[in-house]
Specification:
This protein is of the alpha/beta class. Helix content is 32%, strand content 16%. The protein has eight helices and eleven strands. The strands form three sheets. Strands 1, 2, 4, 5, 6, 7 and 8 form a seven-stranded mixed β-sheet that branches. The longest helix has 24 residues. The chain starts with a helix and ends in an 11-residue tail after the last helix. The structure holds zinc ion. The site of zinc ion has 3 residues, from α5.
């Protein structure tokens, strides 16, 4: 073998190994075992009086960290149960029995495109804190108008446990792109399900119960003026960004004005907090209010999101 031939062979081998690596990152393997998914869909399809949405679960992982089909089914089953089954009385936060409501939304796997569950291998160098951001960047423009895309990424992310885009407040003209991203190293059904439901709230137009900013400073007199007289004054300014009184408002009438994780400087003004609300940052998150459920269902029925509804 001449040097030239040897060199071109070497280049060819280098090229093949490059494209193989590329393929590993992008390879999507649709599952074709549909019997369990059909059973799952039939079970939830029989439930009356709920809004049924099409769902696709996209997993991004190294091969040995993929959740099995039955683990994913159990996870979505627990999400559906939480969204449709009333809490026992003793689990409803005291003082909020009157506004407590369940969203009455369930997810059925979309089987029209044979991709109800997909698994995509990530190379080892992505199995760290950059995996969440990487998947999000790659899929932020994926079409979300036909089904809800649930990205399950078993690695931590510097941005927290989950991520999504908040629906436009009128829900009318916003394009749905991307989906709901949840990060977690282990399949703790409880944590992943709670995180998914929190992000679902954002996806369907809800702000945090403490509003549109993370509260760090507050002027109780100005907040009182906003709550009682509707006067929207500047509260404070940080790094050139101005925060007004209505930035602390989630625009839902039956959730209290409140602050996150024990930070409540104007206690007399805001009344009892709603710690256990799904849209708070507290440890126990188990309930929505009637106003929040109305908002989520209204956004779902808006023009751009109607496609994800089965019935
Ligand atoms: Zn959030």
């Amino acid at each position: 073998m001449t040097f030239c031939k040897y060199l071109s062979l070497f280049i060819l081998i280098a090229f093949i190994s490059c494209s193989k690596q590329e393929e590993e990152i992008n390879m999507t393997v649709p599952k074709i075992e549909y019997s369990e998914i059909e059973k799952f869909n039939n079970k939830w399809n029989d439930v009356d009086g709920v809004t049924k949405l099409r769902l696709v679960v996209h997993q991004f992982s190294s091969e040995d960290s993929f959740y099995t089909e039955s683990q994913v089914l159990a996870l979505v089953d627990s999400i559906n149960t939480t969204l449709t089954q009333a809490l026992p009385n003793q689990d409803i936060e005291k003082g909020f029995e009157g506004v407590y409501q369940i969203p009455k939304i369930v997810f059925l796997f979309d089987t029209t495109e044979f991709a109800a569950m997909t698994t995509t291998k990530l190379t080892t160098d992505l199995e760290d804190s950059v995996a969440g951001a990487f998947v999000r960047q790659q899929h932020q423009d994926i079409d979300g108008s036909k089904y809800v895309n649930f990205f399950l990424i078993p690695y931590t992310d510097s941005d927290g446990f989950g991520h999504t885009r908040i629906a436009g407040s009128d829900g009318a003209n916003d394009m749905i792109k991307g989906g709901i991203y949840v990060y977690g190293k282990t399949l703790d059904k409880g944590i992943i399900s709670t995180t998914f439901i929190h992000e679902l709230g954002h996806y369907l137009g809800l702000y945090h119960t403490f509003g549109k900013t993370y509260p760090s400073e507050i002027d109780c007199d100005k907040m009182k003026n906003y709550i009682e007289n509707g006067i929207n004054e500047l509260i404070y300014e940080r790094d050139g960004v101005q925060f007004y009184a209505n930035d602390y408002d989630d625009e839902i009438d039956d959730t209290p004005y409140m602050f996150v994780m024990g930070y409540r400087p104007c206690n007399d003004l805001f009344g009892p907090p709603h710690n256990n609300n799904f849209m708070n940052y507290s440890v126990i998150k188990n309930m929505f209010t009637q106003g929040q459920c109305d908002k989520m269902n209204a956004v779902l029925k808006s023009e751009s999101r109607r496609g994800v509804i089965i019935e």
